[in-house]
Amino acid sequence: MDGIHDLGGKQGYGPIDVTAPDFAQDWERRQWALSQTMTAPPCTIDWWRHTVECLMPRDYMTMPYFQKWTTTEMALNYHAGVFTLSELVSGQSATPAPDVRAEVYDIPALLEQQRGQNHSFAVPVERPPRFALGDTVVTNRHAGTGHTRLPAYARAATGTIVAHHGGHAYPDACAHAPDRAAGPEQDLAHHLYTVEFTAAMLWPETAHPEDTVRLDLWEPYLAHP
Amino acid sequence: MPSDTSPSADTPGEDTKKMAEIHRHLHSHLPSDPALRVKALESLAVEKGLVAQETLDNWVQMYAERIGPKRGAQVIARAWSDPAFRDRLLADAGQAIKLFGYEGNATEHLKAVENTETTHNLVVCTLCSCYPFSLLGMSPIWYRSAAYRARAVREPRAVLAEFGVTLPEGVKVRVWDSTAELRYLVIPQRPAGTEALDQDQLAALITRNAMIGTQRDLSAEAA
User: Fold this and answer.
1) Which of A34, A182, A223, B64 has the fewest other C-beta atoms within 10 Å?
2) Is the CB of residue A169 less than 8 Å from the CB of residue A182?
């Protein structure tokens, strides 16, 4: 979708605050911890990202980063029926406390759990790759109505394949299949490539002639010219 | 002409519409103060047994004390000192960092990209804020700001100038936009005059910005 989140190449932004800390507020740390540790309804990383993208555009641009996470966790849990609206407004559960409380993880256990979070998104794909290293490719002009990882600035653009990564879970499909979080199979995967674009191709009026931009793009985004 | 075979192009996007509707619904009912929103979410999650409060406290402490850019700096220092490790890191960084036990969130498909006399690498995520958390810790606020995400791909040299980086003549910029599950780690150039330093001393020179690409020259750190 052509969402507000697709910021690459957008103009009108001022200087970057290069001195800002990692976290501006304590509640941001709490949100980071919540998102990483609370039991969540079935969700692919792509459905999670798409939920952020579906924020009201003005909220997307004005909310602090971690407030977008808070609102996304709320929306996902509301959508899945875990929390009701009145519970989210009051912060109080309307159901009796469960018999079993959540287990407490100490720091060594969390460090170990963190190591286990290195999920692979590689999925073997039997179809042979359509593109080879060095091929010239053209990207799609349109993005479709759902989630995609082909940014607007790199659409209908001509680039060169510089790497092939084998099959990877395809976000455009996985975003709309949250129940397939356990690991998508071939039907939700495509060959993934790194594609290089010259900056002059993307922004002919201002680019430095030597500069390039590389993106990781799935096969359905690409065609032979 | 490009064919558009993505499934989402063929579906009406009912789930997308539904989620946007939920966001509008929440917007009109929830407190706008973000701290209050997080407090409500935390209380609910704890009450419903989805997470323990102590686990959240421990997570915050773990990221403050144990996970951060020092991890990435140790990996780079080893690559500077040990050519065989440098080759492993360049070949498959996701595997190479397992020697340190630093794998985790968003590192399985990590790729190390090396600065040279003629190439400077800069990492961004224009669509969200993808970052190799378990190797570099929480991202700096500027990395997830709209200004950086918008400008890094289009005017990388102007962005670099704001970080105090001026590229010598003949150096080209290669921007990596993290659009898939690959994550990028920049290997900065080792400063001159550091031949006698051991890996811990070298690691102390390596900044987070250098591993993202918003710093190029580490010789001031070495001076």
Assistant:
1) A182
2) no
Q: Do B41 and A89 touch (CB under 8 A)?
A: no
B117 touching chain A per CB within 8 A: no
Q: How far, in Å, CA of B178 to CA of B163, rounded?
A: 21
Q: Which is it for strands B110-114 and B183-187: parallel, antiparallel or unpaired?
A: parallel
Give just the sign of the alpha carbon dihedral B124, B128, B130, B131.
positive
B179 touches chain A (CB under 8 A): yes
Mean pLDDT of A78-88: 95
Q: Which residue of A has its CA nearest to B169?
A: A210
**Residue recorded with tokens 């911890």:** A33
What φ, ψ does residue B114 adopt, rounded to 5°?
Answer: -105, 130
Residue B4 pLDDT > 60: no
Is the confidence at residue B222, as pLDDT, over 60? yes
Please give the average per-residue pLDDT across B101-128, as a whole number.
97
Two tokens at A35? Answer: 């998102």
Question: How far is A16 from A9, CA to CA, in rounded Å?
Answer: 15
- What φ, ψ does residue B172 adopt, rounded to 5°? -95, 155
- Would the CB atoms of A221 and B6 count as touching at under 8 Å? yes
Find the helix packing angle between A65-79 and B14-29, rounded to 10°.
110
Q: How confident is the model at residue A180 (pLDDT cuts 50, 70, 90)?
A: confident
Q: Does B93 touch chain A (CB under 8 A)?
A: no
B28 is catalytic: no
pLDDT of res. B7: 43
Q: Which run of H or E residues covers position A92?
A: none
**In the numeric block, which tokens belong to residue B124?**
């961004």
Cα A5 to Cα B5: distance, rounded to the nearest angstrom: 23
B129 classed as catalytic: yes
Distances (CA, A) of B221 to B73, B162, B189: 13, 19, 12
DSSP characters over A12-28: ------TT--S-SSHHH
Structure-block tokens of residue A129: 């790759």
Helix (H, G, I), strand (E, B) or coil at A44: coil
Confidence at residue B105, expressed as pLDDT on a 0 to 100 scale: 86
Say which of B31, B54, B163 has its CB closest to residue A104. Answer: B54
Can you tell me the distance from the alpha carbon of A36 to that of A33, in angstroms, rounded to the nearest whole number?
5
